Task: inverse folding
């Protein structure tokens, strides 16, 4: 049985004081009963505080991105070592906003995935098709390519620290959600693609999260699907009550 993950991507939201308030609220509300892994990804400048505030709780702190090089002349970038020194060992890679607004290609993401593997970091790797691609019935092909291009040069053992987040771009921040059936269909497909490359035991253990307008009202139904192992949450992760309700939905 795969333990569910509920991860909150805070994006470019929450100042330091707001971060402190939200983590304090979450600490009061969240009781995972060891049934759900909870992750939050605040912005870089607030990671140190977030790690300290989350200490002793069930909440793991993740970064929203990182560079693929160890160090160097990369103005504005953050390295794996910089994250790990502040006890951040989980990173979201390939979010569709990084792909769309910061030109992150499969080739760049491949290097980032290799770096996460080399550093022993958990990589929450995002894939997902755009609306036009789904309308043209190309969604399976697109997601398969994203997986193969960025991840499939890694050895099987790398998958112990990879979590896939399927996030159809048309459902992110739009209020549109993939139906639970659409999510299940894609998650099952992703598992099959991983199985074909790495075998059944790797595929069976792989956690595949759904992301795209998950809210307290729809989380339970989406999470009830057999290949949906939790969610990557944007907007609803910014309110403690809503995020906790989604965590609760992950318990059953
Ligand atoms: C996301 O950005 O990863 C996301 C799923 O956002 P939202 O929940 O707001 O659609």
Result:
């Amino acid at each position: 049985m795969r333990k569910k993950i509920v991860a909150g991507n805070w994006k470019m939201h929450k100042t330091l004081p707001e971060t402190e308030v939200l983590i304090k609220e979450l600490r009061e509300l969240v009781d995972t009963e060891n049934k759900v892994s909870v992750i939050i990804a605040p912005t870089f400048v607030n990671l140190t505080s977030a790690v300290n505030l989350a200490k002793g709780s069930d909440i793991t702190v993740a970064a929203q991105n990182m560079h693929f090089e160890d160090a160097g002349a990369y103005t504005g970038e953050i390295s794996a070592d910089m994250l790990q020194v502040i006890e951040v060992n989980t990173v979201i890679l390939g979010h569709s906003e990084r792909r769309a607004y910061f030109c992150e290609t499969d080739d760049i993401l491949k290097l980032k995935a290799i770096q996460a593997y080399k550093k022993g970091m958990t990589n929450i790797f995002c894939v997902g098709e755009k609306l036009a691609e789904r309308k043209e019935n190309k969604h399976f092909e697109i997601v398969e390519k994203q997986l193969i291009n960025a991840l499939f040069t890694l050895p099987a053992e790398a998958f112990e620290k990879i979590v896939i987040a399927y996030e159809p771009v048309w459902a992110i921040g739009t209020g549109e959600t993939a139906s639970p059936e659409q999510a299940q269909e894609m998650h099952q497909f992703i598992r099959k693609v991983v199985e074909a490359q790495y075998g059944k035991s790797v595929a069976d253990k792989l956690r595949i999260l759904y992301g795209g307008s998950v809210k307290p009202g729809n989380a339970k139904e989406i999470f009830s699907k057999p290949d949906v192992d939790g969610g990557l949450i944007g907007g609803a992760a910014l309110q403690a009550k809503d995020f906790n309700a989604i965590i609760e939905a992950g318990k059953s």
Notes: The two ends are 12 Å apart (CA to CA).
